[in-house]
Recover the amino acids of this structure.
């Protein structure tokens, strides 16, 4: 008998030892599961859950502490519809003069903020630096276009 043929089947000493080890492991797992099993009520009623619980892959969730139970409402919350259209706004639509008034208010606020921003020294320096950089770029462009060397 070759080495390959003996490894593919449960035969000889190796096969008997492997079969004995598998049987012992299964017996040990069954004993451990039987020892852990307690006569409690299984809420799920699922045979898969009870089988997984017997082999130690699932557990029962203990009841929450009293302070959590007291903080929960007595009745379950109402269901929220998934594909419901949103409620329409309660106010009436604005007419053209009201829209223009809102636009003017926003423009005045923008001008006031621009004035505050211009008066802030770091912002004024940044604006001056950006203007100087822009003018320096505009001076360099005609020279580069004519083929003259850059400074």
């Amino acid at each position: 008998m070759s080495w390959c043929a003996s490894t593919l089947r449960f035969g000889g000493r190796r096969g008997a030892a492997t079969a004995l080890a598998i049987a012992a492991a299964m017996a040990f797992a069954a004993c451990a599961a039987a020892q852990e099993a307690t006569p409690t009520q299984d809420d799920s009623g699922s045979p898969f859950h009870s089988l997984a619980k017997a082999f130690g892959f699932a557990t029962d969730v203990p009841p929450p502490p009293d302070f959590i139970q007291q903080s929960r409402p007595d009745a379950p919350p109402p269901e929220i519809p998934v594909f419901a259209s949103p409620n329409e706004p309660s106010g009436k639509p604005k007419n053209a003069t009201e829209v223009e008034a809102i636009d003017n208010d926003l423009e005045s606020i923008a001008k006031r903020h621009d004035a505050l921003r211009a008066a802030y020294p770091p912002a004024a320096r940044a604006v001056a630096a950006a203007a100087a950089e822009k003018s320096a770029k505009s001076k360099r462009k005609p020279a580069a276009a004519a083929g003259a060397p850059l400074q």
In short: Helices lie at 3-7, 12-36, 47-54, 66-71, 96-119, 121-146. DSSP finds six helices and no strands in the chain. The two ends are 90 Å apart (CA to CA). Residues 97-143 form one domain.
